[in-house]
Design a protein that fits this description.
3-stranded antiparallel sheet; alpha+beta; globular
Length: 59
């Protein structure tokens, strides 16, 4: 069964080279507090998307 997201916050899309560098330990990804996320509803995140979910207590 596929996963289902009712809503999430999109912080941005990571470039492939930046993601490869972060996964290899050569660099780091942006800190959460440096992003300006936008709310997305009834969508699925795409490849290399920085996403965040609201806590279960606020759903």
């Amino acid at each position: 069964m596929p996963f289902i997201f009712s809503k999430f916050d999109l912080g941005g899309i990571v470039q492939e080279a930046a993601l490869d560098a972060a996964l290899s330990g050569a660099a780091s990804l942006p800190a959460r507090n440096s992003l300006s996320p936008t709310r997305r509803e009834r969508q699925l995140p795409l490849d290399r998307a920085f996403i965040d979910f609201e806590p279960a207590s606020r759903r």
